[in-house]
Amino acid sequence: MLFLMTGIASGAGGAVVIDRVVAVVNDEVITMSDLYREKAKRTDVKDEKLVLEDMIDRKLQMAAAKRNGMDVSAQELSEAIADIKKRNNLGERQFEEALAKEGLTVEQYGSDLREQMTLSRLFNKYVRSGVAVDEQEARSYYERNAGQFALPEEVRVRLLLVKTPPQATADQVEAARIRADELRERLRQGEDLIGLIRQYSDSPTAKQDGDLGFIPRGHAIPEIEEASRLLKPGEYAGPFRTEEGYLIIRVEEIRTPAMPFEKVKDEIVKILFEQKTEVTYRAWLQTLRSDSHIENRL
Fold it and tell me: Is residue 24 within 8 Å of 293, Cβ to Cβ?
């Protein structure tokens, strides 16, 4: 236990304690100054209590590594640092200068790197190696979260076109409009759209009974796009004018397709692997804590 005292008397004539133990982990201690140094390095967490809990977890893991002979040796650390220098094309002096800009000495960097390598080694053996995701789990996740893999809504439209010639005269346009109105009225009287398409539609799609197939929202011509958004399956719109002529449309079906399972399988496996890894890691940490003496004095 380390206490640093100033030689300056306080107003009551006593010494001022500027450091204290904030946690005991088995036979090791974490001081307030340790906590402050760690907090200064962290950009992701600023809550002192959370930072301290993380420091306790790391102490426990480093102790577990030592018990199981998984420490990173001096040789392994030296080789790792040499590799980092090589990959970044840094000589010794450049390396030291780069660390200095980050407020680190070579010794501090080596200590941090040793800890990272040790924790990674421990994690791979006791957590990651025990996690697996099978195809049935992935399929089940896919089915439970179908909306997560939904593609843009699609609409299936059937159309009847009364064509107007290029550069049509006013009389030609009016004649096409009247004809389209007559066809629409016949639909209101109960005639079959497909039959009228086969007899009267001027569109190449007449050979497919006017079926345009499924069109993703936003991909149809503006007139069909606007009209189809207001319709439910089985409802009509038109006639309305387009560059081709007058259209009458019927919405046949609206669907929201999903990406095929095989297309998203790897993504799902990754999601589930990360979830299971987190659960396994937390359970393992809890075991380490249960088997240890911990005092949090913060």
Answer: yes
**What's the domain range around 228?**
152-255
b/e sequence 214-253, b meaning 16+ C-beta within 10 Å = bbeeeebeebbeebbeebeeeebbbbeebebbbbbbbbbe
User: Are residues 248 and 187 in contact, defined by beta-carbon separation less than 8 angstroms?
Assistant: yes
Whether 93 maps to a domain, the answer reads: no
CATH of the domain at 251: 3.10.50.40
Does residue 15 surpass a pLDDT of 70? no
* pLDDT digit string, tens, across residues 223-278: 999 999 999 999 999 999 999 999 999 999 999 998 999 999 999 999 999 999 99
- 91 domain-assigned: no
d(CA 91, CA 189): 88
User: Rounded to the nearest 5°, which phi and psi values hold at 107?
Assistant: -65, -45
Enumerate the β-bridge partners of residue 80. Answer: none
pLDDT given at position 172: 95
Q: How many domains are there within the chain?
A: 2
Residue with tokens 């050979």: 207
- Measured CA distances, 284 to 51, 160, 226, 269 (Å): 19, 67, 57, 22
Residue 16 lies in a domain: yes
Distance of CA 124 to the CA centre of its chain: 23
What is the largest distance, in Å, between two alpha-carbon atoms of the chain? 109
The torsion region of residue 134 among left (phi > 0), alpha (psi -120 to 50) and beta comes to beta
Query: Positive or negative CA dihedral for 188, 192, 196, 199?
Result: negative
